[in-house]
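Just curious. Invent one:
>
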Amino acid sequence: MAQICKNCQYEIELNFCANCGQKKMKRIDRIYLKDELQYTLLHTNKGFLYSAKMLIKNPGRTTAEFIDGNRVNHYKPILMVFVLAGLHVLLTSFLPMKEIMTNYYVDSNAAEYRYNMFLYDKMMKYNSFIMVGIIPVAALCSWIAFKKWGHNFYEHVIINANLLSAMMIVSILVIFPIQLILVPYPILFVFIPVLLTFGIMICFTFWMFVNIYSQQSPGDVILRVLLFFTVFGIVLLLMSVAGLSYLIANGAFPGK
Protein backbone atom coordinates (compact mmCIF):
# COMPACT_ATOMS: atom_id res chain seq x y z
CA MET A 1 0.00 0.00 0.00
CA ALA A 2 1.42 3.39 -1.01
CA GLN A 3 2.13 6.07 1.60
CA ILE A 4 2.94 9.76 1.50
CA CYS A 5 6.52 10.44 2.64
CA LYS A 6 6.55 12.27 5.99
CA ASN A 7 9.71 14.10 4.94
CA CYS A 8 9.12 15.33 1.37
CA GLN A 9 5.48 14.41 0.67
CA TYR A 10 6.52 12.14 -2.21
CA GLU A 11 4.49 8.98 -2.73
CA ILE A 12 6.22 5.84 -1.38
CA GLU A 13 5.32 2.68 -3.25
CA LEU A 14 7.99 0.33 -1.89
CA ASN A 15 9.94 0.39 1.42
CA PHE A 16 11.82 3.66 0.87
CA CYS A 17 11.00 7.02 -0.66
CA ALA A 18 12.44 7.21 -4.17
CA ASN A 19 12.91 10.97 -3.76
CA CYS A 20 14.67 11.43 -0.37
CA GLY A 21 15.35 7.90 0.93
CA GLN A 22 13.04 8.17 3.95
CA LYS A 23 11.91 4.74 5.15
CA LYS A 24 8.23 3.90 4.87
CA MET A 25 6.44 4.79 8.10
CA LYS A 26 6.02 1.90 10.48
CA ARG A 27 4.19 2.01 13.77
CA ILE A 28 6.46 1.80 16.83
CA ASP A 29 5.80 -1.57 18.42
CA ARG A 30 7.67 -4.57 19.85
CA ILE A 31 9.06 -5.59 16.46
CA TYR A 32 10.18 -2.02 15.75
CA LEU A 33 12.08 -1.80 19.06
CA LYS A 34 13.62 -5.22 18.50
CA ASP A 35 14.90 -4.13 15.09
CA GLU A 36 16.24 -0.87 16.53
CA LEU A 37 18.04 -2.69 19.33
CA GLN A 38 19.57 -5.10 16.85
CA TYR A 39 20.75 -2.19 14.71
CA THR A 40 22.13 -0.25 17.68
CA LEU A 41 24.11 -3.10 19.20
CA LEU A 42 25.89 -4.66 16.25
CA HIS A 43 24.09 -3.59 13.06
CA THR A 44 23.63 -7.32 12.46
CA ASN A 45 20.87 -6.44 10.04
CA LYS A 46 23.54 -4.61 8.04
CA GLY A 47 25.92 -7.52 7.91
CA PHE A 48 28.38 -7.37 10.82
CA LEU A 49 28.43 -11.10 11.49
CA TYR A 50 28.14 -11.91 7.79
CA SER A 51 31.08 -9.65 6.94
CA ALA A 52 33.17 -11.08 9.78
CA LYS A 53 32.52 -14.62 8.55
CA MET A 54 33.32 -13.76 4.93
CA LEU A 55 36.52 -11.91 5.85
CA ILE A 56 37.78 -15.00 7.64
CA LYS A 57 36.77 -17.34 4.80
CA ASN A 58 38.31 -15.27 2.02
CA PRO A 59 39.21 -11.62 2.75
CA GLY A 60 40.45 -10.93 -0.78
CA ARG A 61 37.42 -12.19 -2.66
CA THR A 62 35.06 -10.56 -0.14
CA THR A 63 36.83 -7.21 -0.56
CA ALA A 64 36.90 -7.49 -4.35
CA GLU A 65 33.15 -8.17 -4.41
CA PHE A 66 32.51 -5.20 -2.11
CA ILE A 67 34.56 -2.86 -4.31
CA ASP A 68 32.74 -4.17 -7.40
CA GLY A 69 29.40 -3.20 -5.85
CA ASN A 70 28.13 -6.26 -3.96
CA ARG A 71 27.57 -4.40 -0.67
CA VAL A 72 24.00 -4.91 0.48
CA ASN A 73 24.84 -7.72 2.93
CA HIS A 74 28.07 -6.21 4.23
CA TYR A 75 28.92 -4.04 7.20
CA LYS A 76 30.63 -0.72 6.51
CA PRO A 77 34.41 -1.43 6.52
CA ILE A 78 35.60 1.66 8.44
CA LEU A 79 32.89 1.27 11.07
CA MET A 80 33.80 -2.40 11.40
CA VAL A 81 37.38 -1.44 12.27
CA PHE A 82 36.05 0.86 15.02
CA VAL A 83 33.82 -1.85 16.46
CA LEU A 84 36.51 -4.54 16.38
CA ALA A 85 39.16 -2.21 17.84
CA GLY A 86 36.78 -1.34 20.68
CA LEU A 87 36.03 -5.02 21.27
CA HIS A 88 39.76 -5.78 21.30
CA VAL A 89 40.39 -3.09 23.92
CA LEU A 90 37.47 -4.41 25.99
CA LEU A 91 38.88 -7.94 25.98
CA THR A 92 42.39 -6.69 26.74
CA SER A 93 41.04 -4.85 29.78
CA PHE A 94 40.35 -8.24 31.38
CA LEU A 95 44.06 -9.08 31.25
CA PRO A 96 46.34 -7.96 34.13
CA MET A 97 48.47 -5.98 31.69
CA LYS A 98 50.08 -3.65 34.25
CA GLU A 99 51.23 -6.59 36.35
CA ILE A 100 52.47 -8.51 33.31
CA MET A 101 54.36 -5.53 31.90
CA THR A 102 55.84 -4.77 35.32
CA ASN A 103 57.14 -8.33 35.59
CA TYR A 104 58.43 -8.22 32.02
CA TYR A 105 60.42 -5.02 32.63
CA VAL A 106 61.58 -6.06 36.10
CA ASP A 107 65.23 -5.97 35.02
CA SER A 108 64.93 -2.71 33.12
CA ASN A 109 65.89 0.67 34.50
CA ALA A 110 63.16 2.89 35.89
CA ALA A 111 63.16 5.34 32.97
CA GLU A 112 62.77 2.57 30.37
CA TYR A 113 59.92 1.06 32.35
CA ARG A 114 58.08 4.39 32.62
CA TYR A 115 58.55 5.12 28.92
CA ASN A 116 57.21 1.74 27.86
CA MET A 117 54.25 1.91 30.23
CA PHE A 118 53.48 5.44 29.05
CA LEU A 119 53.43 4.30 25.41
CA TYR A 120 51.33 1.25 26.25
CA ASP A 121 48.76 3.35 28.17
CA LYS A 122 48.45 5.80 25.27
CA MET A 123 48.09 3.02 22.71
CA MET A 124 45.31 1.38 24.72
CA LYS A 125 43.54 4.68 25.34
CA TYR A 126 43.51 5.70 21.69
CA ASN A 127 43.53 2.22 20.16
CA SER A 128 40.45 2.71 17.94
CA PHE A 129 41.72 6.02 16.58
CA ILE A 130 45.20 4.57 16.00
CA MET A 131 43.72 1.62 14.09
CA VAL A 132 41.56 3.86 11.91
CA GLY A 133 44.45 6.32 11.46
CA ILE A 134 46.69 3.54 10.14
CA ILE A 135 44.23 2.75 7.34
CA PRO A 136 44.85 5.79 5.09
CA VAL A 137 48.62 5.46 5.64
CA ALA A 138 48.54 1.78 4.63
CA ALA A 139 46.16 2.63 1.77
CA LEU A 140 48.62 5.19 0.39
CA CYS A 141 51.43 2.63 0.54
CA SER A 142 49.43 -0.17 -1.11
CA TRP A 143 48.13 2.27 -3.74
CA ILE A 144 51.74 3.14 -4.59
CA ALA A 145 52.70 -0.54 -4.75
CA PHE A 146 49.69 -1.54 -6.91
CA LYS A 147 49.20 1.81 -8.63
CA LYS A 148 48.89 0.51 -12.21
CA TRP A 149 46.52 -2.34 -11.41
CA GLY A 150 43.21 -0.48 -11.51
CA HIS A 151 42.21 0.52 -7.97
CA ASN A 152 42.25 4.12 -6.80
CA PHE A 153 43.40 5.37 -3.38
CA TYR A 154 39.90 5.26 -1.87
CA GLU A 155 39.41 1.65 -2.93
CA HIS A 156 42.72 0.86 -1.24
CA VAL A 157 41.26 2.42 1.91
CA ILE A 158 38.54 -0.25 1.81
CA ILE A 159 41.09 -2.97 1.05
CA ASN A 160 43.21 -2.04 4.06
CA ALA A 161 40.20 -1.57 6.32
CA ASN A 162 39.04 -5.10 5.54
CA LEU A 163 42.58 -6.43 5.91
CA LEU A 164 42.86 -4.85 9.37
CA SER A 165 39.41 -6.16 10.34
CA ALA A 166 40.30 -9.69 9.27
CA MET A 167 43.49 -9.59 11.34
CA MET A 168 41.65 -8.24 14.40
CA ILE A 169 39.01 -10.97 14.13
CA VAL A 170 41.74 -13.62 14.15
CA SER A 171 43.45 -11.81 17.01
CA ILE A 172 40.24 -11.87 19.06
CA LEU A 173 39.46 -15.51 18.28
CA VAL A 174 43.00 -16.95 18.45
CA ILE A 175 45.56 -14.66 20.06
CA PHE A 176 43.44 -13.46 22.98
CA PRO A 177 42.78 -17.03 24.27
CA ILE A 178 46.53 -17.73 23.97
CA GLN A 179 47.23 -14.59 26.01
CA LEU A 180 44.91 -15.87 28.72
CA ILE A 181 46.91 -19.08 28.91
CA LEU A 182 50.25 -17.22 28.99
CA VAL A 183 49.38 -14.73 31.74
CA PRO A 184 51.70 -16.46 34.29
CA TYR A 185 54.64 -16.26 31.84
CA PRO A 186 55.43 -12.58 31.07
CA ILE A 187 58.18 -13.22 28.50
CA LEU A 188 56.07 -15.71 26.54
CA PHE A 189 53.03 -13.46 26.95
CA VAL A 190 54.85 -10.64 25.18
CA PHE A 191 56.76 -12.53 22.48
CA ILE A 192 54.40 -15.29 21.33
CA PRO A 193 51.41 -13.01 20.55
CA VAL A 194 53.74 -10.58 18.75
CA LEU A 195 55.18 -13.36 16.60
CA LEU A 196 51.72 -14.78 15.89
CA THR A 197 50.37 -11.33 15.01
CA PHE A 198 53.29 -10.74 12.65
CA GLY A 199 52.72 -14.13 11.00
CA ILE A 200 48.98 -13.51 10.65
CA MET A 201 49.64 -10.09 9.13
CA ILE A 202 51.98 -11.52 6.51
CA CYS A 203 49.71 -14.47 5.63
CA PHE A 204 46.50 -12.42 5.41
CA THR A 205 48.16 -9.67 3.36
CA PHE A 206 49.51 -12.08 0.75
CA TRP A 207 46.25 -14.05 0.75
CA MET A 208 44.12 -10.92 0.33
CA PHE A 209 46.07 -9.34 -2.52
CA VAL A 210 46.52 -12.62 -4.42
CA ASN A 211 42.72 -13.01 -4.42
CA ILE A 212 41.98 -9.36 -5.21
CA TYR A 213 44.36 -9.45 -8.16
CA SER A 214 43.59 -13.01 -9.23
CA GLN A 215 43.96 -11.99 -12.89
CA GLN A 216 47.66 -11.28 -12.23
CA SER A 217 50.33 -13.94 -11.73
CA PRO A 218 50.94 -14.84 -8.05
CA GLY A 219 54.63 -14.01 -8.46
CA ASP A 220 53.87 -10.45 -9.60
CA VAL A 221 51.41 -9.99 -6.73
CA ILE A 222 53.96 -11.22 -4.19
CA LEU A 223 56.55 -8.74 -5.50
CA ARG A 224 54.01 -5.92 -5.18
CA VAL A 225 53.12 -7.01 -1.64
CA LEU A 226 56.81 -6.98 -0.70
CA LEU A 227 57.03 -3.45 -2.11
CA PHE A 228 53.97 -2.53 -0.05
CA PHE A 229 55.59 -3.92 3.11
CA THR A 230 58.81 -2.01 2.39
CA VAL A 231 57.10 1.33 1.79
CA PHE A 232 54.74 0.88 4.73
CA GLY A 233 57.62 -0.09 7.05
CA ILE A 234 59.63 3.00 6.08
CA VAL A 235 56.62 5.29 6.53
CA LEU A 236 55.78 3.81 9.95
CA LEU A 237 59.40 4.16 11.06
CA LEU A 238 59.49 7.82 10.02
CA MET A 239 56.14 8.49 11.71
CA SER A 240 57.30 6.77 14.91
CA VAL A 241 60.55 8.75 15.04
CA ALA A 242 58.68 12.00 14.37
CA GLY A 243 56.05 11.21 16.99
CA LEU A 244 58.54 10.24 19.69
CA SER A 245 60.67 13.29 18.92
CA TYR A 246 57.62 15.51 19.29
CA LEU A 247 56.65 13.91 22.62
CA ILE A 248 60.17 14.22 23.99
CA ALA A 249 60.53 17.82 22.80
CA ASN A 250 57.26 18.80 24.45
CA GLY A 251 57.99 16.97 27.71
CA ALA A 252 55.11 14.52 27.28
CA PHE A 253 57.13 11.58 28.59
CA PRO A 254 57.25 11.06 32.36
CA GLY A 255 60.36 12.40 34.04
CA LYS A 256 63.26 10.35 35.29
Remarks:
- The first helix runs from residue 30 to 42.
